[in-house]
Write a structure and sequence with these properties.
Number of strands: 12
Low-confidence stretches: none
Shape: elongated
Mean pLDDT: 89
Structural class: alpha/beta
Number of helices: 17
Distance between the termini: 35 Å
Number of domains: 4
Radius of gyration: 30 Å
Order of helices and strands: HEEEEEEEHHHEEEHEHEHHHHHHHHHHH
Strand content: 15-25%
Largest sheet: 5 strands, mixed
Length: 411
């Protein structure tokens, strides 16, 4: 009696684990080596609902699904899936534990989605013993399903962050668009420049968004981006991201360093990293090496370095009027330095000063996007070897899209 009771309890336990409905029952649980097979059947004479009617069984189809491991054992769910008579002809019943056409249970797909957000698909393949292609098909199904049902009338984007995504240095392939207030990616387009901006505009309007929703756009200083935003979102205020503004000046500094290095090689050994790195993040020994280099006040590199450090302090002002006076004074100092590269850099700042000054009104940056740089670099590494960028786009949505997947919760 005790054995029968325990067996019944075990079957009830497995039914709860699998989410089986009343018309289903466990016919057999067997272990073969390190694999567990759970067999599910339906009761003789059972009828199944179809559009409000209970329909009798015509015949059955044997199906198999991979389920989450039972301890260390790979687990499969097997079932006779009924095909039923309906007013529209014979139809196959949709089982409650898996989506149509999938070879995995919903719980197993939830596991794949969770793991793929934390590590590479190659590692998910190793952990779960599922081919890369099958994992990507699951990811693509759920990600595209959620993206398809975007509705910008419910969540309008008011502050838009735009950033280019390069799979390898010097090659930009995708442009990502982030709702900065909600800190989530809402669109990823192929290519860069004007076409990517209009790709987002088309998508935004297609999903019930209005052009006038976009009040502020945070972006780099790309001329193609600037003209496209002015055309596509004429009422939006452009804010040039301070990270990219400083990057522009650092590129100027590096060009000066390269020029002078040809004439002063011993003094320039191993100094590039120290010049471009945030001084606050340098180790003590690095700081000492940099300070020693900066004593050479006659070098254009040293003069430019000090000017750029001064420029960065301009972002500390709270009042826009004070910041404006500071930057105009800084531009004059660059002109007085007569360093050719700094003259060009100062002119670039002057040309883009309106967008730079907009920061002091809106106080928005691409910091959220830049804060994810390490994750983004990891994602681009995961895309190595892909024939297309489809999977890179999927990974960006998966990690940064804050998508809500219709799968069982694992915790």
């Amino acid at each position: 009696m005790g054995g029968k009771r325990n067996g019944k309890k075990l079957r009830v336990f497995f039914k709860q684990l699998l989410g089986l409905v009343d018309l289903k029952y466990l016919s057999c649980i067997e272990q073969k080596g390190l694999v567990v097979h759970i067999h599910v059947d339906f009761k003789r004479g059972a009828k199944f609902p179809y559009k409000g009617e209970l329909c009798r069984v015509h015949d059955t189809v044997i199906r198999e699904w991979r389920h989450m491991n039972l301890f260390q054992h790979k687990t499969y769910l097997h079932a006779r899936v009924p095909r039923i008579y309906t007013p529209e002809g014979v139809k196959q019943v949709q089982v409650p534990w898996a989506r149509e056409g999938s070879g995995f249970t919903l719980f197993f797909e939830a596991l794949l989605l969770s793991l793929a957000q934390l590590t590479s698909v190659a590692q998910v393949h190793q952990l779960c013993d599922v081919s890369d292609n099958r994992i990507w098909r699951v990811l693509e199904h759920y990600i595209e399903k959620e993206v398809k049902f975007q509705d910008f009338s419910e969540e309008p984007v008011t502050t838009l962050s735009i950033d280019e995504v390069a799979r390898k240095k010097g090659h930009v392939y995708l442009t990502s668009f982030m709702d900065l207030e909600r800190a989530k990616v809402v669109h990823v387009s192929d290519g860069k420049g004007k076409e990517s901006i209009f790709s987002f505009k088309e998508r935004y309007e297609e999903k019930e968004g209005k052009v006038d929703d976009i009040e502020t756009v945070v972006m780099d200083l790309s001329p193609a981006f600037i003209s496209a935003i002015e055309e596509a979102f004429p009422k939006a205020t452009i804010v040039f991201d301070k990270f990219h503004v400083v990057k522009l000046l650092n590129n100027v500094l590096d060009s000066i360093r390269r020029r002078e290095r040809k004439e002063n090689i011993p003094r320039f050994n191993k100094i590039r990293y120290l010049l471009l790195k945030d001084p606050k993040k340098l180790k003590k020994s690095q700081r000492e090496r940099l300070d020693e280099f900066l004593t050479q006040a006659n070098l254009d590199t040293v003069k430019a370095y000090n000017l750029i450090q001064m420029f960065k302090r301009g972002y500390e002002y709270q009042k826009p009027s004070w910041a404006g006076k500071f930057f105009h004074h800084w531009i004059k100092l660059c002109q007085q330095s007569k360093i050719p590269e700094m003259l060009k850099g100062a002119q670039a700042i002057l040309t883009h000063l309106k967008g730079i000054m907009a920061y002091f009104t809106y106080r928005v940056t691409n910091a959220v996007m830049e804060g994810n740089n390490s994750k983004l670099r990891t994602i681009t590494k995961r895309s190595y070897g892909f024939k297309t960028l489809r999977y890179l786009r999927l990974m960006i949505f998966l990690v940064f899209g804050k998508l809500k997947f219709d799968v069982p919760r694992l915790t």
